Amino acid sequence: MYRFLLSRQWVIITLVAFLLIPTMIRLGIWQMHRYEERSARNQLVADALGAKPVPVEEVSSPGHAVTTHERYRNVTAVGHFDTDREVVVRRRVNSDDEVGFHVLTPFVLTDGKVLLVNRGWIPADGPSQTAFPRIPAPPSGRISVTGRLMPDETTAASGIKDLKGLPDRQVMLINSEQEARRLDASVLGGYVVLTAPEPKGDTPELLGKPGEENAPLNYAYAIQWWLFAAGVPVGWVVLVRREIRDRAGAAEKETAAEAEEPAAV
Predict the structure, then answer these.
(1) Per-residue pLDDT at 264
(2) What pTM does this model have?
(3) Which of 143, 87, 96 lies closest to 119, judged by CA?
């Protein structure tokens, strides 16, 4: 009854079916690892955003590389904005995917060190891309600011090419080492995305909070792959039983046809 399983066609079907099982199991395990990684990153972001703000100099210092656990940490600083030396960061989009600039303004702390503050997004509505855009001024004098700490941007991490020969006071990346050389100052590592005080007239447009990665989707994919793996042997058995049924039916028809043939005289 089962001799057909030794045919070339069924040997190939069986091998493919049972090779799919470990492949699908491994894909499910990989998706579960992705789920755990994304969940861990989401938790890190949530913990950082929910933590009580601390003075920025407790977290960063000149030359410091902001770590994964420090990213998005709420920090505060006291000093004044130096708008004479602010720059704009090219090719940045807002929540509506409109292309414009990020406004990067040095914030001089009371001890003379400099904190880079990303004050938000402005549209690229100047007369040309080479002209420095009009930027609303921040509060003047000594103030306190609050923001989310971010690591220095690099081409490797962001995929943004650090183009040279840009127009005056325009940059491609926010990088404290580069800005320290440009400003000839002691600049704290990383930069801060401003959250307070809010700008008058909503310009520059403050940057929104980071969104959560869709970790549950990877969990669903893992379950899906494992269900597929479980379904392979079930499907194989169904195909085998159907083949047996079809062969039995064909044999019965052949026997009936032979019985109806007239006997030879």
Answers:
(1) 53
(2) 0.76
(3) 87
